[in-house]
Specification:
Blueprint: E1 7-14, H1 18-26, E2 32-35, E3 45-52, H2 57-70, E4 73-76
Antiparallel strand pairs: 1-3, 1-4, 2-3
Length: about 80
């Protein structure tokens, strides 16, 4: 999956949730790719860069809804 083939979205999450969320998304190889760029400010929040295959948008939306029930995950627009 290349960046040109994907839909890019950014999410803000609690640093304590990053490992879990990235683990779940990384397990969905071919559906999404996730990056957690280094934060220069530190603090309690982290931005996640999520690249979604256009073929799996409905599935990703369902997964996102479920993740939001137990984790801090807010979409941000950059």
């Amino acid at each position: 999956m290349t960046a040109a083939d994907t839909i890019t979205r950014y999410f803000r999450t609690d640093r304590r949730d990053v490992a879990f969320i990235c683990g779940v998304l990384d397990a969905l190889e071919g559906m999404v790719a996730v990056r957690s760029p280094k934060s220069t400010r530190g603090g309690a929040l982290q931005i996640l860069h999520v690249m979604i295959s256009p073929f799996f948008v409905p599935e990703f939306t369902t997964l996102l809804t479920r993740l939001k029930k137990t984790n801090t995950l807010d979409e941000v627009f950059v």
